[in-house]
Amino acid sequence: MSDNNLSIESLLRRTEGLASVSATPRLDIELLLCHVLGKGRSFLFSWPEYTLNECEFQQFSELLDKRKHGNPVAYLIGTRAFWSLELLVEPSTLIPRPDTESLVETALERCDHRPRIVLDLGTGTGAIALALAKERPGWRITGCDRIPEAIALAKKNAIHNGLNQVSFIESNWFSALSEQMFDLIVSNPPYIVDNDPHLQEGDVRFEPASALTSGLDGLDDIRRISREAPAHLNDDGWLMMEHGYHQGAEVRQILLDSGFTEVDTVQDLAGHDRVTLGQLKELRSL
Ligand SMILES: C[S@@+](CC[C@H](N)C(=O)[O-])C[C@H]1O[C@@H](n2cnc3c(N)ncnc32)[C@H](O)[C@@H]1O
């Protein structure tokens, strides 16, 4: 192959075969090239004539081939941007999504800078816990997950982002938290219906079912968290959960049935119901 064909400019055009697996073929190639070259995206635009050496080209070709077979870019390059953080990702847990930034924003909007004790249930990469820690250095934050590999990954992400004040523990929802009480509990739990046909499409095919599915209506974990959270919330404490765009009304009812007040649903940037929250305020003052 001529050197011309190994230039960045030429490789950026190799989008054939990607359109069926990706909505962003050109961006995918940019990210793979950045990973192989160990450079930021500005390098690609500043040095389009840069020619990959044999080893770089071999690595790029292998990654591109895997991408064409559907492997998520984040798993191929090992990182994903979330909030203002760079998170390490592994197939043991979900790749953090931009939608989840709505949950971080909601928590920051409803809770000022006063010190708070916070729990992130189903922390995965640690995305939510670490984003909150970045914005609220005075908060005491714990992230828990049932999957030991996710906890190891979240701990690595805390170090990677210099946010060592966050603790991570293995726990099946509240099981390892015995009598611990919190001012704020946030969660992006699994909320997809067990047999949802979308599970056979796109990136989710490569993500673990343990991070995605939750029973026949997708709400088993949200029901359980809502039922168990009151025993772990201080007066005026909040529970905030991410859910599917069509689940807002059901989640509001679940929170009301569990004794929460101030129940509300917040939309994501696309205008879809995404986060439902409730407070224990009036229940405690009755
Ligand atoms: C949708 S992922 C969210 C991951 C991360 N919080 C995020 O927003 O990117 C759900 C997470 O909940 C964890 N999980 C599922 N069931 C759990 C349980 N019973 N107890 C604790 N964590 C659980 C999964 O391992 C997974 O990491």
Task: Please outline the helices and strands.
Elements: H1 8-11, H2 25-37, H3 41-46, H4 54-68, H5 73-77, E1 79-82, E2 85-88, H6 101-110, E3 117-121, H7 127-135, E4 140-145, H8 148-160, E5 167-170, E6 182-187, H9 220-228, E7 233-242, H10 248-257, E8 261-267, E9 273-279, H11 281-285
Parallel strand pairs: 3-4, 3-6, 4-5, 6-7
Antiparallel strand pairs: 1-2, 7-9, 8-9
Helix pairs in contact: 2-4, 6-7
Reported CATH architecture of the largest domain:
3-Layer(aba) Sandwich
Catalogue the ligands: S-adenosylmethionine
Strand line-up in the sheet with most strands:
5-4-3-6-7-9-8
Beta-strand segment tally? 9
**Helical proportion, percent range:** 25-40%
Query: Regions with pLDDT < 50 over 5+ consecutive residues?
Result: none
Counting H and I runs of at least 4 residues, what is the number of helices? 11
CATH topology call of the largest domain: Rossmann fold
Per CATH, the class of the largest domain reads Alpha Beta
Order of helices and strands: HHHHHEEHEHEHEEHEHEEH
- Strand percentage lies at 15-25%
The largest sheet, given as strand count, sense and whether it forms a barrel, is: 7 strands, mixed
Return the domain count.
2
Q: How many whole angstroms does the radius of gyration measure?
A: 21 Å
Oligomer: single chain
Question: How much is the average pLDDT?
Answer: 95
